[in-house]
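In this supplementary section we document a worked example of the pipeline. Step one takes a protein sequence of length 180 as its only input; no multiple sequence alignment statistics are reported here. Step two produces a three-dimensional model, which step three serialises into structure tokens for compact storage. The input and output of this example are shown verbatim.
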Amino acid sequence: MHQDVWARSICGEGIPNFYAKKAFGSLPHCRGIVQDAALAKLYHKFGLCKSVLRDYGYTKDKDGNPLIKDCQTNDFAMYYTSPEALNVADALYNNKQGLTDKFVAYWDHTSKKFSGNKYVVGYDPLNEPYPGNNFANLKLNEPGVADKTLLAPMYEKIFAKYQANDKNNSMWFEPVQVPD
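The serialised model returned by step three reads:
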């Protein structure tokens, strides 16, 4: 499953917008509302915790998504530190709004559809995963922590679906990109 910054509504792609919007809600935060206010000057100095929806001033399309040409004016990697992206990652890994369950169901459906297809050599459940909300949980910035505590449990559920659909299905484990 290829993704960069999770969803179209936050200058990315991967999961449907309606899941992303539900995951980041109406007032997304990086560490917490009070903590973000206290850290605002520090965030601003390093360009972190900048809301894709409120702080960039992008023109929106008819669906309320920032225009792609506007999104492309910045390195997409910076959008991962937006409160929206951090909250989507947290929801995916911690099953908020049932997002992990939905992601596992997606892979159950997909692996069932392609089981036995001799041209499918394996599955990579998540392209370049981000380490959850590594602003709110600073431990996730330690090498290997997010892989073990967030990705591995989710990947184990997905792998069980692959194997139930076809014992010959293979899976690649892609670790988080930051900080490793």
